[in-house]
Amino acid sequence: MNSSLLKIHIPRGEESAMGPGKADLLDAIEQAGSISGAARAMGMSYKRAWDLVDTMNRCFRQPLVETATGGSHGGGAEVTDFGRDILMRYRAIQHTASASVEDEVQALIALLA
Amino acid sequence: MNSSLLKIHIPRGEESAMGPGKADLLDAIEQAGSISGAARAMGMSYKRAWDLVDTMNRCFRQPLVETATGGSHGGGAEVTDFGRDILMRYRAIQHTASASVEDEVQALIALLA
C-alpha cells in the first residue's frame, strides 16, 4: 500500500508540527543543502518552504533545520541530528500505520467501480 | 489518539473515493435524511456536498447514497446498505491505523516545545 494514502499530522495547538509535506521538505533540504534548493526541487516558493521550516523549528524543543547566514536566500541549510531523529520517527509511524491496514484497504479498493 | 490526525484516502485514479470529509458527510446524511440538511449541518454548500456524493457514487460499484426526486433541492437522501458497509469499513481502517501508532505518536508529541 502506498503510504501516501495516509496523511499523518502531529498537531501542536492549531498548527501541524509535522506532516507529509514537512517530512518531504526535510528530505529535500538534506538532498539540496539549502532551503531555496529544496523549494525548487519541490516546486514550492522559497517563502512557503521557509514558513514550513519556521513552523517545525518553533513547534519542537530543538530546531530541525539550521541555516547559515549570508547569500541572497540566506546561504545553506542542514537538517540537525534532532531533525533526522524526528524524520525517522515520523517515517516509521507512516510505515506502521500503513502496514496495519493494508489488507482492509485492499478489500475496500476491491469494491471500487 | 485522536483519529483525525490520520487522514486516510481511498484513491481511484486521480480522485479520492473515500476520505475523512466524505465519511463525515455520509454520517451527516444519515442524521439529516437529505443532502441539503447534511450540507447545512457541516457548514458546506449544497453544491459541494452534492459533488462529494456524486464522486462516491461514481467511484464505487454501487451507490452509497440514493436520492429521492422532488422538492427544491431534490427531496430526501439516504445512505444505502452498501454505503453503510463502506463507511463501517472506512471507520475500522481509521481506528486500526490510529491504534497501531498511538505510542509512537505520543513519543513524538513528547518532543514538542
What's this, in brief?
In chain A, 56% of the residues lie in helices and 14% in strands. The first copy, chain A, contains five helices and five strands; from the N terminus they run βββαααββαα.
Short key terms for the protein model shown above:
homodimer, 113 residues, alpha+beta, Arc Repressor Mutant, subunit A, 5 helices, 5 strands, 14% strand, elongated
Fold topology:
The structure is a homodimer of 113-residue chains.
Chain A: E1 6-8, E2 10-12, E3 15-18, H1 20-32, H2 35-42, H3 46-59, E4 65-67, E5 77-79, H4 81-100, H5 102-109
Antiparallel strand pairs in A: 2-3, 4-5
Helix pairs in contact in A: 1-2, 2-3
Walk me through this protein's architecture.
The structure is a homodimer of 113-residue chains. Chain A is 56% helix and 14% strand. The first copy, chain A, is α+β, with helices and mostly antiparallel strands and 113 residues long. Chain A has one domain (3-109): Arc Repressor Mutant, subunit A (Orthogonal Bundle). In chain A, the strands form 2 sheets. The first copy, chain A, has a two-stranded antiparallel sheet with strand order 2-3. In chain A, strands 4-5 form a two-stranded antiparallel sheet. In chain A, β2 (10-12) and β3 (15-18) form a beta hairpin. Chain A is elongated, with a radius of gyration of 16 Å. The mean pLDDT of chain A is 92. At the A-B interface, β1, β2, α4 and α5 of A face β1, β2, α4 and α5 of B. β1 (6-8) of chain A pairs antiparallel with β1 (6-8) of chain B.
